[in-house]
Structures are given as structure tokens and as C-alpha cells.
């Protein structure tokens, strides 16, 4: 388990949307960007649209996503991540959600390695 900081709303999230890399599935969209300073840690934001239900349902989904990400082994990751659930994610159990997000975070780690290897001289 690791400490997860929240991304402050506003300019930083807008920058991340515009300049970040994406992982897209039928149920999830992950927008991420590496941080310049490795010691900054892991930043997370969960954006849930109104079409996913009323406020109680959206907040429950937000809490479940935050918890599913929190229990993952994120040691050494220094990045900002926005998780956006799509409509099919609404009816999932916590176990299904946790499993899918775990797979996506593993893919994200692989994608980061590929990008860092290709940019190395």
C-alpha cells in the first residue's frame, strides 16, 4: 500500500488531459503523465460523469476506485493519474473493478518502460 495524493482541480488536471498519455478500454480511461521529480510520489484523480448515476452512486464508485488503486503495489511510481470510469463500469463489483484496474496499472507500467526505453539515447 502506498500514499496517494490527490491532484488539485483546475490547471493541473486540464494540462494532464491535454498532454497526458492514455490507456483506453471499454470500461476505463486512464490518463497519465510522468512527474519530473521522482520524489514527488503518486497523484490520483477520479473523474466520474453524471451519466453514471446520482451523487451517491458516483461517490461510491469514486471511493471504490481510490481504494482499488491504493492497495496496488505502486512502489517507485512517480506519476499523475486520472481514472475515468465509463458506463459499463457502473455495475461492477469491487472485486471485478479491482482486478481490472490492477491489469490496467500493470499495462501502464509496461507502457512507461517502453516510452522511457525509446527516448533513451
**Helix segment count?**
3
Low-confidence stretches: none
Give me the count of strands: 5
Oligomer description: single chain
Average predicted local confidence, pLDDT: 84
Helix content range of the residues, please? 40-55%
Outline, from the CA principal axes?
globular
Strand neighbour order, sheet with most strands = 1-4-5-3-2
Instruction: List SSEs in N-to-C order.
Output: EHEEEHEH
List keywords for this structure.
globular, alpha/beta, single chain, five-stranded mixed beta sheet, Ribosomal Protein S5, domain 2, 5 strands, 121 residues, 42% helix
If you had to describe this structure to a student in words, what would you say it looks like?
Helix content is 42%, strand content 21%. The protein is α/β, with parallel strands linked by helices and 121 residues long. The protein has a single domain (4-107), classed as Ribosomal Protein S5, domain 2 (2-Layer Sandwich). The chain has a five-stranded mixed beta sheet with strand order 1-4-5-3-2, sandwiched between helices. Strand 4, helix 2 and strand 5 (79-85) form a beta-alpha-beta unit. Helix 2 crosses helix 3. The longest helix is centred in the C-terminal third of the chain and has 26 residues, at 94-119. The model has no long low-confidence stretch (mean pLDDT 84).
Amino acid at each position: 500500500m502506498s500514499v496517494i495524493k490527490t491532484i488539485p482541480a483546475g490547471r493541473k488536471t486540464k494540462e494532464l488531459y491535454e498532454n497526458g498519455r492514455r490507456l483506453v478500454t471499454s470500461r476505463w480511461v486512464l490518463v497519465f503523465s510522468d512527474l519530473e521529480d521522482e520524489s514527488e510520489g503518486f497523484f490520483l484523480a477520479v473523474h466520474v460523469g453524471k451519466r453514471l448515476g446520482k451523487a451517491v452512486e458516483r461517490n461510491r464508485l469514486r471511493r471504490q476506485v481510490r481504494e482499488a488503486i491504493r492497495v496496488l503495489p505502486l512502489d517507485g511510481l512517480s506519476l499523475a493519474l486520472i481514472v475515468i470510469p465509463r458506463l459499463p463500469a457502473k455495475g461492477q463489483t469491487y472485486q471485478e473493478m479491482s482486478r481490472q484496474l490492477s491489469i490496467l496499472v500493470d499495462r501502464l507500467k509496461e507502457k512507461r518502460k517502453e516510452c522511457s526505453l525509446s527516448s533513451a539515447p
